[in-house]
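Before surveying the methods themselves, let us examine one representative protein, pairing a chain with its fold in token form.
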Amino acid sequence: MKLLELKKELLSACIIEIDERADSLRKVMDDAQQSANDYGQPKDRYDSYRTQLLRKRDLFGKQLYKILEQRNVLEKIDTERVTDTVKFGAIVITNKQKMFVSVGIGKMEYGGSDYFVISPGVPFFKAMEGKKAGDSFEFRGQKFEILEVS
């Protein structure tokens, strides 16, 4: 499979993953709000159960906001542009693992292979940033050789 096609498909899979996480958070937020509504007003000034439910809802709201920011970042990736250096939006194939530099989703299985979807802010990316196919780099005592970049 060509790497540009792979990039489009991986990006699509990442967006689907982000959307699923966002939907899950929305459901949990709605459940917390409904529980608070069902509980009603605090019974006395020491009753903190409703307040805890609303704090829980707000916590999930902050997580949802971060996930939606990640989705916006993913939408900025140009899947038509070929790159020969490791940078944001690149797929990097090394002798040990495959990565997609976009947002910090983690390990994803796609097309029978594992891909690590990493953000440009992680130290591993910093170790390989700007490198090209054929270059090598060292990270935490391990040597990696870059086989392909797109």
User: Anything to note?
Assistant: Residues 91-149 form one domain.
